[in-house]
From TrEMBL:
Residues 4-135 form the GST C-terminal domain. Its EC number is 2.5.1.18. It holds the Pfam family GST_C_3. The lineage of its organism: Eukaryota, Metazoa, Cnidaria, Anthozoa, Hexacorallia. Transmembrane segments: none annotated. Residues 155-234 form the GST N-terminal domain. It catalyses: RX + glutathione = an S-substituted glutathione + a halide anion + H(+). This is glutathione transferase. PROSITE patterns: GST_CTER, GST_NTER. PANTHER family: GLUTATHIONE S-TRANSFERASE, HEMATOPOIETIC PROSTAGLANDIN D SYNTHASE.
Length: 276
């Protein structure tokens, strides 16, 4: 602490100068008008702070002692201001002090006091942790935005059928293989007459596929569309026709099987099951 009254007065002068500087800084950053804030900050950096540094440097020059205020509140307020407001809390000497050797020495002297250094390092660790968190949050936010864009561009699929495998299962499997989400609506037979009456299915049958609100019917047309959309159909037209051909055969088999099950007459059912 400053020894005699003169030294105490000098410490007060020094810390008053820092106090004024602090006020100028706060006035600049606290201005509600963003443009004015920018103007005031630029003025603070280009005029106010350099002028104050020259004044403080001169003030120290008049002091023959190297240990200016023996680590008084004046040194601490000087260091705290330049470290936090102009040095970004880092350990390096702030740019604003570089041309002022006495102020630089004073800054280094205060900074290198072990307890002060430990304190600054502790703050820096918190600051760095915060920076890392902010960085992670920004990266995460970017991913969320990309994912949202991707989701918005992805068609929304809704497949409606009965609670059986039947004519919808191969379509469901194609979605599963492609790893694409779809709404798997399974209509209870009791609810079917009402739904059928609603005209949701243009053919009056299921399955239907809604793609962003547009409706497709016919299981094999749906299958072929979904497979093409999700990259599971041959690119070659001949191979595509072969795939359609095979799907057509299966479709016929399914129809015959359905007809067999639908037939009340047990004899006809047995005959149908042999698929004639
Ligand atoms: N050719 C159509 C046939 C569809 C079909 O027969 N659907 C049946 C279930 S497998 C159905 O909706 N039955 C109820 C009805 O016709 O009211 C397709 O392959 O999608």
């Amino acid at each position: 602490m400053p020894g005699n009254d003169i030294e105490k007065a000098k410490a007060d002068i020094f810390s008053e100068a820092i106090y004024d500087l602090e006020n100028a800084f706060i006035r600049a950053v606290a201005d509600p008008d963003k443009n004015q804030q920018r103007v005031l900050m630029a003025k603070f950096k280009s005029e106010t702070a350099p002028k104050a540094s020259v004044y403080l440097e001169k003030f120290l020059d008049k002091n023959p002692k190297d240990e200016v205020f023996c680590l008084s509140y004046a040194d601490i307020s000087f260091f705290a201001f330049f470290n936090s407001y102009l040095g970004g809390g880092e350990l390096e000497v702030p740019e604003a002090l570089k041309d002022h050797p006495r102020l630089t020495t004073l800054y280094e002297k205060v900074r290198d006091e072990p307890k002060i250094k430990a304190w600054i390092e502790k703050l820096l660790a918190v600051l760095n942790l915060r920076r890392v968190c902010v960085l992670y949050i920004r990266i995460l936010h970017t991913f969320v935005l990309i994912f949202q864009t991707f989701l918005n561009e992805m068609p929304q699929y809704k497949l409606t059928y009965f609670p059986i495998r039947g004519k919808a299962e191969c379509i469901r499997i194609v979605f599963a293989i492609a790893g694409v989400e779809f709404e798997d609506v399974r209509v209870h037979p009791q609810d079917w007459p009402k739904l059928k009456e609603s005209g949701l299915s243009p053919s009056g049958q299921l399955p239907i596929l809604e793609v962003n609100g547009q409706i497709l019917t016919q299981s094999k047309a749906i299958l072929s569309y979904v497979a093409k959309e999700l990259g599971l159909a041959p690119e070659d037209n001949f191979q595509l026709a072969q795939a359609d051909m095979l799907a057509g055969v299966i479709s016929e088999l399914e129809d015959k099987l359905n007809a067999a099950f639908a037939n009340e007459d047990q004899e006809k059912k047995a005959r149908n099951l042999h698929l004639q």
